[in-house]
């Protein structure tokens, strides 16, 4: 299984640190030349590989960690995303409800990535929390997952476990997705909730 993170701002780097903690190789890409962020990637760990967008979209599981406004540009990188899981880490704060046509922001992203199996997740924590070791207070930091594809959510849940998090499935994008999204000037009810699960 191969992994990529598209977007290498604070959230993308926080995700890369999560992979590094567990020694899992992950490619990172932006729309820029990889040489412009290769040093930052190398500083996180030797298994964080800076590459081009064209290389990153070849991965099996892709974390979309760009600004919400950029998702359509990334979606055009492939004619079909069949067979890939996209983890939507975006937040649409400031984007009008009219632009989202009364649907969750994750639904809008899912429609753009034709053929992909989309899971909304890892977006409810600010980067400064997300980059920390998820083993806290004798438990594991929760990450919320919503998807219309239960098998994809299960697969990303297993990856979250491997990264040390406690996955919590919220159901479909029209229900659970609304709990972990931003739209207009409001945040979903679970955004910024830093919860810890005790086994």
Automatic annotation (TrEMBL):
InterPro entries: NAD(P)-bd_dom_sf, P5C_Rdtase_cat_N, STEAP_metalloreductase
Entry keywords, A to Z: Oxidoreductase
GO molecular function, a single term: oxidoreductase activity
Presence of keyword Cytoplasm: no
Domain Pyrroline-5-carboxylate reductase catalytic N-terminal: residue ranges: 3-91
Signal peptide: none
Family matches, as Pfam families: F420_oxidored
Stated name of the protein: Pyrroline-5-carboxylate reductase catalytic N-terminal domain-containing protein
């Amino acid at each position: 299984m191969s992994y990529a993170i598209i977007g290498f701002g604070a959230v993308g780097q926080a995700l890369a640190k999560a992979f590094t903690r567990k020694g899992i190789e992950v490619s990172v890409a932006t729309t820029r030349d990889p040489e412009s962020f290769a040093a930052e990637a190398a500083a996180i760990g030797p298994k964080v590989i800076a590459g081009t967008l064209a290389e990153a979209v070849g991965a099996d599981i892709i974390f979309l960690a760009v600004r919400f406004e950029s998702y359509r540009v990334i979606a055009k990188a492939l004619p079909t995303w069949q067979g890939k899981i996209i983890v939507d880490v975006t937040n649409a704060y400031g984007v009008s409800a009219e632009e989202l046509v009364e649907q969750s922001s994750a639904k809008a992203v899912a429609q753009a990535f034709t053929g992909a199996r989309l899971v909304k997740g890892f977006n409810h924590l600010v980067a400064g929390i997300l980059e920390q070791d998820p083993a806290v207070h004798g438990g594991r930091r929760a990450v919320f997952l919503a998807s219309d594809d239960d098998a994809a959510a299960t697969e990303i849940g297993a990856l979250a476990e491997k990264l040390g998090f406690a996955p919590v499935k919220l159901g479909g994008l029209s229900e659970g997705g609304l709990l972990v999204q931003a739209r207009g000037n409001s945040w979903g009810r679970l955004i910024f909730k830093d919860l810890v699960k005790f086994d």
